[in-house]
Structures are given as structure tokens and as C-alpha cells.
Amino acid sequence: MKEHRNPRFTILDNQTVGLNLSLFRKLRQKKALEVALHLGLKEAAYTKYERGETKITIEIIQNISEFLNVERLFI
């Protein structure tokens, strides 16, 4: 069976995204708590994103990247 791929859509790998969030946060010398507060989350909920344990939305990624002043997160 042939697999159909749509080039307009990308499936996000939560672990890769989480690793990038963590790396950029550390590069910007921010604590996980600071990002969590910006998002209106508890720190434990935010760190689940960084560990890839929780599915993340594009909206959350954009919000975090704006807070960390990152023009583009490599996902």
C-alpha cells in the first residue's frame, strides 16, 4: 500500500520540539518557571512539553518562541 503524504502538513515530533524548547530556553538564560508563568501554566505542565510527554500546539510553540525571542524554532 502506498503512503500518501501532504507536503503542506508536518507532523510534530514532541520529543524533538521539546528538546529545542529546552535548548533555546537555556540559551536565553530563562528558567522553566518563567516560561510557564508566561504561558499561564504551572512549571510541571510546561516541563512536560520540554520532555516531549505532552503534545504541543503550534500556538504554544509560537508563544514560547516570541517570549524567548527566537525567530524560528527548528522542529
From TrEMBL:
SUPFAM superfamilies attached to this UniProt entry: lambda repressor-like DNA-binding domains
Domain HTH cro/C1-type: residue ranges: 21-75
InterPro entries given in the database record: Cro/C1-type_HTH (IPR001387), Lambda_DNA-bd_dom_sf (IPR010982)
Pfam families: HTH_3
Species this protein is from: Belliella pelovolcani
The protein's name: Helix-turn-helix
GO molecular function: DNA binding
Domain of life: Bacteria
